[in-house]
Amino acid sequence: RPGDTFKLVWEKSYKKGEEFSDGRILAAQYLGKEGSHTAILFESPEGHKDYYTIKGESLRKKFLRSPLNYRRISSYFSYKRFHPILKYYRPHLGIDYAAPLGTPVVSIGDGVATYVGWKNDYGRFVKVKHQNGYYSTYGHLSRYGRGIKRGVKVKQGQVIGYVGTSGLSTGPHLDFRVVRNGKFVNFLKIQIPAAESVKDKYRKEFEITKKERLSQVGILSAYRSFPHQIVAAER
Predict the structure, then answer these.
(1) How far apart, in whole angstroms, are the C-alpha atoms of residue 206 and residue 67?
(2) Which element (helix H / strand E) includes 209?
(3) Which DSSP symbol is given to 46?
(4) Which residue numbers delimit the M23ase beta-sheet core domain (predicted)?
(5) Domains in the chain: ranges and CATH
(6) Distance between CA 89 and CA 95 in Å, rounded?
(7) Mean pLDDT computed over 96-100
(8) DSSP letter at 204?
(9) Nearest alpha-carbon partner for 171 in 80, 225, 103
């Protein structure tokens, strides 16, 4: 809207004194009639990177809204669904996403792969344990993502497999399910919580980063230090 202001602080990479490429966005701020919003990139000492508000709350949702790019939903969450192969009604406590064979499937959130292998009707199957009592499962895969095996940590958006039709299946699709505190839930209807805020033990480091970034946003000055240049720009 006219009069609104948007400010960015980002990295520029240099090679032999020549601008090479744009790097990460380190901070962003919006000022408008409806208020102000600030995002700050913070990397904890343990290597976790995320964008946070000035209060240290994550701006990322705990889960992605879907685990793949799909054509349509072929079966919804139901306690009484007619099975197209078995020809009788039984619960379908997940969502079937129809998609072309080989479509990448990603983890909806950070977690640990607790099961990677063949699982009866589900065929090639991956189960991921998330924080706060959540699990997500991915069935009928054609193959697994690179490095995906039991016990490995996975990041939100990481490819864990590819759409297939393994197991009891009529065609290429993903059988996707979410468990919360031991019970299957309809993922299309749950309210997705925000990702974890800055941990208390890293609050001091976050405050130092925040102070530096807000200073850069406020004065819109350029910090020149090769091989990176931190640039503040306003448009």
Answers:
(1) 31
(2) helix 203-219
(3) T
(4) 91-186
(5) 5-60+195-234 (3.10.450.350), 72-185 (2.70.70.10)
(6) 16
(7) 96
(8) H
(9) 103
Q: Are 172 and 101 in contact (CB under 8 A)?
A: yes
pLDDT on residue 223: 39
Asked if residue 219 has pLDDT above 60, the reply is: no
Residue 124 has φ and ψ, to the nearest 5°, of -70, 130
**Tokens 């990041």, located at residue:** 155
What predicted TM-score, i.e. pTM, was given to this entire model? 0.76
| DSSP-derived secondary structure for 107-151 | -SSSEEEEEEEE-GGG-EEEEEE-STTEEEEEEEEEEEPTT--TT
Rounded Cα distance, 71 and 98, in Å: 6
Strands 72-75 and 134-144: unpaired
Contact (Cβ atoms closer than 8 angstroms) between residue 9 and residue 230: yes
Beta pairing partners, 195: none
ω into 45 cis (within 30 of 0): no
Tokens of 224: 């020149």
Q: Kindly report the CA angle at 111 between 107 and 112, in degrees rounded to 5?
A: 105
As given in the structure block, the two tokens for residue 223 are 């910090």
Rg (CA), the chain: 22
Q: What is the mean pLDDT of residues 59-67?
A: 94
Mean pLDDT (whole number) for 132-155: 97
Angle (nearest 5°) at CA 40 between 68 and 156: 20
Beta-bridge partner residues of 73: 97
For residues 102 and 143, give the distance between their C-alpha atoms in angstroms, rounded to a whole number. 8
Closest CA to 126 of 68, 205, 207, 192: 68
Instruction: Retrieve residue 177's tokens.
Output: 């399910």
